[in-house]
Q: What sequence folds into this?
């Protein structure tokens, strides 16, 4: 019996020793980069291999990293050296918990040219005077319209609606109802393929936070207007009718997608749609136009409004070699790297110099519409706070209730404001 | 009269008192040694995390800084949280409707699969097959089947003149849709029932037959009581599984919009996950986990207690 115990203990000790040795044997320095998105890991790894060629430091990229691995890694003892998140909201939550660094020293160490960065995407990373992340690439949304359907409805195919009111009128003309009352074609669905309240509310002159991010303004007039404006489309066509219609839409990235198939005449979509992986690949014959989403008639000065939302690069507070992380971050932010990475994916660059790279122009005129909008005086970003995730979830529920259940926008938003006011103050340490 | 060697705790039988001899001690040691892989796993990966989560449920958890002890704040906030009640309500709906329905349907299927007909092995395989389809794949498949415009289910309904609902887009139909999905994958329960049915002594059935009992009487008075322990087992495991319902709802919510449409698929575990990993409120989520644990514990004990009246253990 005793022998058996002995054997057991020896086995355990031996296995521990082996693991320890295994860990020690790989002494070569490797920086680890985790990227929350990425459907082409080889391409991203190849990009970072160039850093290895330049600096001799090996970089190991994991993309996409599973969401549930990020938090344990940041709280554990061995986080990645650089982490690229899908949006600024998580960066803020992580910063509040002390999981990622404020970046002033990294910006200094890496000598990062902050003046080269577009202010809108950078604003996603600002927390008061601090910068807790850096935007790498970004997205923006604009209005897409189907020129053939415009022509069929007797509208000028070269002239998109100039105001939000006109857009609603056009939508009416572009909607086709069958003999049995079911929808056959719809002019515009405000929340197709997902919510765009951020863009509408900016056009109505506000957001769900005050501009400096210090106050919660969920029930502001701009928010009520944005929700009411969206609600009209559901009221007009009937919620059930519209939901039955949308549920038959083809897959998002397939030739049967609603806009490609001519089921929806106008949509709000992002810059990647005009890039090589979407419309040109999936529906090359589609006759369509792209323009900035129009402002309300009463506010022509809000023309060219866009809302950026995009990647945020952070340095985990537990990263072993902060200087190495900072240098890698600086390399990632250099215009050449930004241009290469985001031209490849047909996403928008956050660096002004990168935006001038001819590779973006090569993506076509329609892509240029988005690049030009980056420099618009009405370019904003989705503001983020440590409360973003929880609040966005509640806003989404509110939007569902308003659009699909006909709930009163003001009452619904008042309720969210009342619920989140104390939580917001607590989260912001006010 | 109660047997003096019989010991009870809360009405449950306890094993007889052990007499510690050298032999029993040695046996215990050997037994523990053989159990040790499980024991180590249990202490390190189940008991310890559970106790730690109990501690965290009384704190505001910070990943890097020490947790703040806040006594019952998480619990009082939970009891004032509308979404907590909504998620509990959604979950109870599934427990109360999906579990009994699933038991009933799988029992019926098991009865059919227990008949002596040609090609029975084939039918058994067919009924079991859906259980080996991964949850995510099965759920996505069902989302397609239930698509109101192009899905098979509504096309079939339309043929018999019924206008099918909007299923996953309609808050009134999203849970029934998930129940349908669950019933499609009930092969595991069917197999357990089938093994139970095959253990029903043929002699009893034949005796009843000789006494003139018809099929239904044989089923009601012999088969159902004989498989009652299996029903209890399936009921308890089904109930626990349903309280922890997560994967299908997570797939339906597409990660980003958990609980859609209109919070109708916000189940308890989904809301717990949201709090823990999206809102980073680990303390709050730990409190939720403990409330769930207590609910399941009480209901299981209650079921075991009540089950005395309707379960029959042969021998």
A:
């Amino acid at each position: 019996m005793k022998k058996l115990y002995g054997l057991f203990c020896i086995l355990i000790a031996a296995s521990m020793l082996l693991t320890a040795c295994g860990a020690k044997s790989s002494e070569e320095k490797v920086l680890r980069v985790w990227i929350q998105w990425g459907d082409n890991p080889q391409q991203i790894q190849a990009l970072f291999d160039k850093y290895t060629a330049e600096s001799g430091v090996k970089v190991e990229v994991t993309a996409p990293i599973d969401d549930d691995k990020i938090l344990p890694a940041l709280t554990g003892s061995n986080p990645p050296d650089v982490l690229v998140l899908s949006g600024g909201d998580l960066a803020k939550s992580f910063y509040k918990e002390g999981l990622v660094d404020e970046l002033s020293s990294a910006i200094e160490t890496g000598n990062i040219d902050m003046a080269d960065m577009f202010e809108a995407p950078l604003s996603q990373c600002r927390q008061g005077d601090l910068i807790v992340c850096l935007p790498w690439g970004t997205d923006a949304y604009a209005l897409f319209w189907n020129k053939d359907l415009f022509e069929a409805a007797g509208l000028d195919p070269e002239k998109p609606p100039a105001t939000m009111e006109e857009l609603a009128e056009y939508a009416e003309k572009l909607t086709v109802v069958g003999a049995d009352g079911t929808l056959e074609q719809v002019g515009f669905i405000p929340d197709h393929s997902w919510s765009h309240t951020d863009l509408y509310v900016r056009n109505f002159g506000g957001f769900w936070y005050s501009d400096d991010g210090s106050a919660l303004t969920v029930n502001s007039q701009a928010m009520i207007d944005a929700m009411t404006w969206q609600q009209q489309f559901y009221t007009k066509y009937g919620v059930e009718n519209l939901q039955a219609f949308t549920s038959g839409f083809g897959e998002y990235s397939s030739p049967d997608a609603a806009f490609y198939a001519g089921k929806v005449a106008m949509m709000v979509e992002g810059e990647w749609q005009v890039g090589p992986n979407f419309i040109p690949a999936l529906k090359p014959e589609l006759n369509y136009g792209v323009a900035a989403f129009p402002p309300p008639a009463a506010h022509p000065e809000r023309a060219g409004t866009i809302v950026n939302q995009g990647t945020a690069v952070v340095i985990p507070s537990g990263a072993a070699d902060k200087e190495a992380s900072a240098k890698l971050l600086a390399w990632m932010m250099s215009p050449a790297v930004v241009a290469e990475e985001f031209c490849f994916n047909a996403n928008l660059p956050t660096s002004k110099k990168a935006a001038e790279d001819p590779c973006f122009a090569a993506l076509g005129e329609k892509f240029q519409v988005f690049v030009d909008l980056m420099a618009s005086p009405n370019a904003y970003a989705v503001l983020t706070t440590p409360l973003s995730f929880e609040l966005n979830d509640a806003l989404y529920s509110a939007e569902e209730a308003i659009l699909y259940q006909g709930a009163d926008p003001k009452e619904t938003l008042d309720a969210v404001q009342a619920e989140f006011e104390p939580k917001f103050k607590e989260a912001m340490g006010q | 009269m109660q047997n003096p060697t019989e010991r009870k705790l809360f009405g449950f039988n306890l094993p007889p008192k052990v007499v510690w001899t050298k032999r029993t001690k040695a046996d215990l040691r050997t037994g523990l040694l053989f159990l040790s892989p499980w024991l180590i796993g249990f202490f390190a990966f189940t008991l310890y995390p559970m106790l730690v989560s109990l501690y965290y449920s009384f704190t505001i958890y910070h990943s890097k800084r020490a947790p703040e002890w806040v006594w019952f704040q998480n619990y009082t906030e939970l009891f004032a949280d509308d979404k907590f009640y909504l998620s509990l309500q959604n979950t109870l709906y599934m427990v109360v409707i999906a579990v009994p329905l699933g038991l009933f349907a799988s029992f019926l299927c098991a009865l059919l699969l227990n008949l002596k007909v040609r090609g029975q092995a084939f039918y058994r395989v067919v009924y079991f097959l859906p259980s080996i389809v991964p949850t995510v794949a099965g759920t996505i498949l069902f989302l397609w089947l239930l698509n109101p415009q192009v899905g098979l289910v509504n096309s079939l309904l339309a043929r018999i003149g019924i206008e099918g609902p909007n299923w996953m887009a309609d808050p009134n139909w999203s849970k029934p849709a998930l129940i349908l999905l669950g019933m499609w994958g009930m092969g595991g329960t069917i197999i357990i029932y089938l093994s139970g049915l095959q253990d029903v002594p043929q002699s009893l059935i034949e005796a009843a037959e000789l006494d003139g009992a018809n099929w239904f009487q044989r089923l009601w008075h012999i088969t159902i009581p004989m498989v009652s322990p299996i029903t209890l087992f399936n009921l308890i495991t089904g109930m626990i599984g349903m309280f922890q319902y997560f994967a299908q709802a997570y797939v339906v919510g597409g990660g980003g919009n958990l609980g859609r449409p209109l919070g109708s698929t916000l189940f308890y575990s989904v809301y717990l996950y949201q709090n823990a990993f999206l809102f980073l409120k680990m303390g709050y989520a730990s409190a939720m986990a403990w409330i769930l644990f207590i609910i399941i514990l009480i209901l299981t004990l209650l079921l075991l207690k009540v089950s005395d009246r309707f379960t029959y253990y042969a021998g």
In short: DSSP finds 14 helices and four strands in chain B.
